[in-house]
Amino acid sequence: MKHFFTLTVIAALATASVITLSAFNSKKSATATEYQVVCASKTQVGANYEWCWMITNPNPGNGNDGTLQNISHWSVPLSLTAEAALVSAEYSFDGITWYGVSIEMERDPSIRACTTTDVLKFNAGTVGGDPTYYRATFSSDFTINPYATSYIKGGANYGTNGSKCNVHMFAGVNSNTTGN
Predict the structure, then answer these.
(1) CB atoms within 10 A of CB 72
(2) How many CB atoms lie within 10 A of CB 39?
(3) Which of these, 42, 38, 63, lies nearest to 51 by C-alpha position?
(4) Which are the contacts of 131, defined by CB distance < 8 A and separation ≥ 6?
(5) pTM above 0.85, yes or no
(6) Where are the domains of the chain?
(7) What SS3 class is residue 162?
(8) Correct CATH for 36-177 of 3.90.550, 2.60.40, 3.30.70, 1.10.3470
(9) How far apart are CA 155 and CA 71, in angstroms?
(10) Banded pLDDT at 22 (limits 50, 70, 90)
(11) Of 27, 108, 112, whose CA–CA distance to 75 is shortest?
């Protein structure tokens, strides 16, 4: 009888722990991995300085169950010093063929929920897991800011409160020049 009571208590505790764990797991939502934003290069080209970034979607999908939708574009705020030194901006889907973008700093109306700041908008996104490259050329040499802010505009299943965009830190252009 003593063993029956002990076994009943053990069975009850095991059942309760399984129920508790399954309730906990069902309340957890799947979290998507983040888009990968990498500074691929910073190179002096003649008298100018060319920065190249690469964005990759590590888990492409519909935005559910830990997947990420393709992004539609990438927006980058710049300091007034970097904005004044901006010579050109381009994007590429293969790192070879480049397409120019407007270098006007203005408000991106599609991410109003994210920022009130003027941004350099690279109007090109990701396609599946393939990288997209973004390049900006400056007439001054700037130091790297490892905590620069950028805004990624995604689909309906990305962002907080349906904003369809998110803030991403990346190795970007600092407001300080190197003095060269």
Answers:
(1) 16
(2) 16
(3) 42
(4) 54, 55, 56, 95
(5) no
(6) 36-177
(7) helix
(8) 2.60.40
(9) 7
(10) very low
(11) 108
Q: What is the pLDDT of residue 159?
A: 56
Tell me the pLDDT band of 19, cut-offs 50, 70 and 90: very low
Tokens of 120: 């350099």
Question: In terms of residues, how long is the chain?
Answer: 180
Residue pLDDT, tens place only, 41-71:
999 999 999 999 999 999 999 888 888 889 9
Rounded CA gap, 134 and 92, in Å?
A: 6
Tokens of 93: 């889907």
Q: Rounded to 10 degrees, what is the CA torsion of 162, 56, 70, 35?
A: -10
Give pLDDT tens digits for 139-169: 999 999 999 999 888 766 555 555 556 788 8
The mean pLDDT value of the chain amounts to 79
What does the DSSP 8-state code read for residue 61?
Answer: S
Within a 10 A sphere around the Cβ of 91, how many other Cβ atoms?
A: 21
Which of 87, 75, 77, 82 lies closest to 122 in space, CA to CA?
75
Q: Which amino acid is at 129?
A: G
**Separation of alpha carbons 82 and 66, rounded Å:** 36
Distance (Å, whole) CA 126 – CA 178: 32
